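Supplementary Methods S3. Input chains for the assembly prediction are listed below.
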Amino acid sequence: MPEPLLDQDFIARIERLELVSRKIVSGKLKGERRSRRRGHSTEFADFRPYVPGDDLRFLDWNIYGRLDRLFLRVFLEEEDLWLDILVDTSPSMDWGEPNKLTYARRLAAALGYIGLVNQDRVRVSSFASRLRPVFGPARGRRQARRLLERLDALEVDREEETRLAPSLRTFSLSGGKTGIAIVITDFFDRRGFEDALRTLTARAATTDVFVFHVLSPQEIRPEVTGDLRLVDIENEEAAEITVSRPLLDAYQRSLDRFRGGIQHQCRRSGMHYVFAPTDVPFDQLVLGYLRRRGLVR
Amino acid sequence: MTPLWWLLGFLPALLVLYFLKLKREEVRISSTLLWRRSLEDLHVNAPFQRLRRSLLFWLQLAALSFLILAVWRPRCDRAAEIGRSAIVAIDVSGSMKAVEDGTSRFERARDEALALVDRLEPTDRMIVLSFAQVAATVQPLTSDRALLSSRLRSLEPTDLPTDFAAVLETLSEVAESLESPAIWVIGDGAHGGLDAAPAKVQRFEYQFIRVGGKETENVAITQADVRRTYGHTPRTELFALVSSRFTTEKEWTVRIEREGQLIDARRVRLAPGGHEGIIVDVSLVKPGLLEVAIEAGDALETDNRVVLALDEPKPTPVLIVGPENPWLDDVFRSSPEVAVERVTPEGFPRERLAQQVVDGTAPVLVFDRWLPETIPAAPALFIGCHPSDALASVDYKEREQPVIVDWDRIHPVLRDLAFESVRIRRGEVASSEDARFRCLADATDGCLISELKRSRPGGGTVSAIVVGFDILESNWPLGHFSFPIFFDNAIAWLGRSELEKRARWQTGEVLTAKPPPGVEPGAHLRFRDPSGAERPAVAEPGGLVSLGRIERTGVYELLVDGKVVDRFPADLLDDSESNLTPRLEASSKTGDGAATGPIVEAASVRETRELWPWFALAALAFVVLEWYVYHRRTYI
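Predicted structure tokens for the full assembly:
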């Protein structure tokens, strides 16, 4: 029997966590999140002078009595939070030990669960060459079971090749849904990651975008020897190599540049880059690292 | 092994190498993106990347070039130039059959000669000679390299002894007919030098290419014969001398066989350079071919075996000339080993005897109180007379009643005889200081029985015994045992060598044989040599047939009407030839190119010239280097 995405112990430990957006987000409903937009909530924020047209119900009559001036009480409007989780399901994700896709599903499950129990609107999509809905939008603890089932059933799009840019562009243009966006991918797109991250930049203005870069240990420190014919499982392209020290050193340099490039572009666009090797224990990432990075508290 | 075989040997290895290169393990990975970038990174950063990309090609090209060069068999001209006119003399003597490290000296010498031929320029000319006892032309002067090679390849070694001085004389005569010739002598140097050579030999320089080892171990039979001994009990004995040229003391078994059947075997233990004689009594062995062989795995096989003919003793022919003498007739008639013919002085066969002397078949002559005008040069017994032509320095004096007072008890003729009671009425006593005169029985003032060496017209001497009294004027025939024994001994001793058939011949001798009775002069006979080849021969007017010089050991056969009538064993029996140690002193050239003697040690032509193994090795090195670089290669 396959291992469940989240075990009960772990669920118990994330039960009290909530997702934190550093940006005040607006939602259709008064949710549990503080919004930059002030309005009709119970939490007092400030006073401002009355202007014609304001709702007279929010006039502070006590101040008028003392100062003979009309002031309006302004409240913080509490809104719901949109949590968008995008999981890369291209064939390259179904590789490595521990498996990258499994790691991505568990990460999505954990963050989605936290969102659901905190009454956030949670939506999960998958992508390879295009974006596909997987779950939601939905909220509430009762949806958690369905979320886990959907993620459990999430499989690799065997026939497709990674195309980050069109998928993320679709997500960015879907518009309106502000909150937190989580992209989980290995960034193995032979067309490059630059265009894809650029399409997310517009979204990053209103949304906390977290980019999870998932790589397996075999990709970080390849343990190969001899004369090899490497075949890309996405497009069957082959590369013949003879493993040598200079080649392995060159690989490390390429990997560092690859990661550095993604990180740099994320930082410049106001997005958060999280490097997630699959050999880092999952609970350690969620309960330790993400907490320190302020995604959850 | 030729380079072509080497190439064929390498081909499978190259094919395996090629297929190994193609065989790569396939690994499926998530993405080749980073690997491609890594390879590009290496490309960009690698120094001399353009050169490196084509390095494999250059290495393969170099390997192939060296391989092709190796197949072409390049040669190094380290040795001196052959010369516009070259004389190449190759040693074919018996010692050249010595085998060292699986190759005979002759084969090495021939390879050297072939190498010289290969290096001839188109305008150069060469004459090839072979030499042993004498030098013989193998190929007259020519520039045809194919012809020279063909003649050299057909050349075979002989079992002849070497006369190097005579050979050098011939070489110098040949050299005189050419303009500034280069003389190459190829041999083992296991013979003497220039001691006996005439002065003209010194006018030329001889490039001596030495083949064979310095200290080659060999054991040989250097002397052998079958002889009858004449004492009171005549015996036939086989004698063989075994000589060792080993550096350590060793023991061998010597087998003596008759027609393949073992009749005796002896153990011989010899110190380095030692000799030991073997004597075997073969009196009771039936006539036939005797073989003496040493079981030794030494360098030279030829001298380990000797074949000798053991002939049936034939009665010694005796011709008695003189007046009637019944005592003498009786004494010869009673001996089975004597065939007596008696003639009167009038019937003396002068012409027949002259021919028999030439043929070497003359009987022992007994002149009894009578002498012809010319005494044939045959062994003779003079009774009551003496040869006047023998020695001028012998004085004969008549004596009345001479008494024999002493006699030579060691001489084979008088051994164990007694003359005390012999009384003589009248006799002649002889005296001489000449070394060819030997007194056998002394009277009081001279020699009554003597031995003389008479000169033979063609050289050499024949023996004669002179009895200085008429036996009819003595009491010697009456009751004296010494009388018949003396004549028996005298005839046996006088006829001992001249009438015996030779037991063996030596290589280098001219074989002449007497055909059996009934073969007329001019008759066509055949000789068969040890290899089985037959050649015709003609009986000469003298009754002899000649085969010519014996070049190979073994048994030669005389055939009449296809049937073997006589056999002649020929052996090496040459101590000098069996000594395989080089004794020829050749000088080395000094720094300024001058040599101290006419024979100059020259470097081997054959060993210094072949370069193809080095080129093949270089090709292999490049293949290995290419293989290594290929493995270091890190681009697609």
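The radius of gyration of chain B is 38 Å. The interface with chain A takes residues 23-39, 41-42, 45, 631-634, 636 of chain B (CB under 8 Å).
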